[in-house]
Amino acid sequence: MGSLFLYENIKRNKGYKYRNNTIEIFLDRETLSLDITALLSGINIEGVIEMKISKKVGITSWILTCMYFVLEPFFVMSSIAPYNVMDHAMSDLGVTSCGEYTYSLAAYDICSPHHFWMNVLFIVNGITFSIGIVYLSQQLERNRKNLIGTICLLLLAIGNIFSGFIPADVNLFWHSIFAQLGMVTFLIGLWLFGKLLVRGKWWTYGILVSLVVLVIFILLLIFIPLPAGLLQRMFYAITFLWGTVLAIILSDHKGAYR
């Protein structure tokens, strides 16, 4: 699920530059250019937000998103290689090969016999996560803050989908890039949603503070050993809990925003 790889991936390659709305990523053999303006213009986010999602579908989507943590233990227990949820990334369960160094950051043994279904779970989780975010967006006043906040939140959900389609041992960069960026943009999205909310405002701000603390600990992984797997799971668990509770709070559509 895009797990904590972005810093090491960029450091291992030659770096990147941002200029004229374009990110240039320098890999070992080539330069990859991403025109951010063109990328965003090709995605009709406003059209997605306009799709009407019912209360039943919205709340159900959040409950299904939380089901990830109900299903994950099955894949943990079925791992042939030793797997520790405290230290190992969620993405390790979706790695398609067995052995050490299945991807560049995995200096330990990985062997997940049900990796196909784990990756399906990542994809389905990202889809239900996306539906839940759009549902919450529809409960808020439709303005620029809402649109930008929704895009910021959706990046994390899109990262989950990418993680399922592109396992870490297939292409580490594309497996992790959207999930890693999404961890940062999600904080911005929560702040913008909080500014629009009346009911659920302080719940959202409380979750925002919790996630900021977690992101700080995740960044400290660069310098000191910490339980990376636990930190990653806590980030997603708190995120899923936020959406589920807020969807219930806003379910009657009264006083959702100022």
From TrEMBL:
The keyword DNA repair does not apply. Keywords: Membrane, Transmembrane, Transmembrane helix. The chain crosses the membrane at residues 59-81, 116-135, 147-166, 172-193, 205-228, 234-251. It comes from the Bacteria. This is DUF998 domain-containing protein. The keyword Membrane applies. Signal peptide: none annotated.
